């Protein structure tokens, strides 16, 4: 989560929100170690630094569904993480609702 430039109060709110989401996944997959790390950094730099400091075995990023011509492209954050990560990266595409 990119919280660059946000006050400490917002940072704390972001941490609590992310912990609540992580708790749902911890209950569903108790065998996994899930950590929340909210940083004030550029998203790519923050994700890479967190993965390195946690000695992550896998980083999961969200890809963007795009029009057919650009379907193979990642967003700039996903692309940056894939290009520079020192561990495997899984790109997950979240279904979107057409409006």
Automatic annotation (TrEMBL):
In this chain the UspA domain maps to 22-93
Superkingdom: Bacteria
Q: What is this protein called?
A: Universal stress protein family protein
Write the lineage as a comma-separated list: Bacteria, Bacillati, Actinomycetota, Actinomycetes, Propionibacteriales
């Amino acid at each position: 989560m990119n919280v660059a430039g946000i006050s400490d109060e917002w940072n704390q709110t972001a941490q609590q929100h992310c912990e609540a989401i992580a708790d749902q996944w911890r209950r569903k997959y108790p065998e996994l170690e899930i950590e929340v790390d909210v940083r004030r950094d550029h998203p790519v730099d923050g994700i890479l630094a967190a993965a390195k400091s946690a000695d992550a075995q896998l980083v999961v990023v969200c890809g963007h569904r795009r029009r057919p011509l650009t379907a193979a492209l990642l967003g700039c954050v996903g692309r940056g993480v894939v290009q520079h990560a020192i561990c495997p990266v899984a790109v997950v595409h979240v279904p979107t609702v057409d409006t």
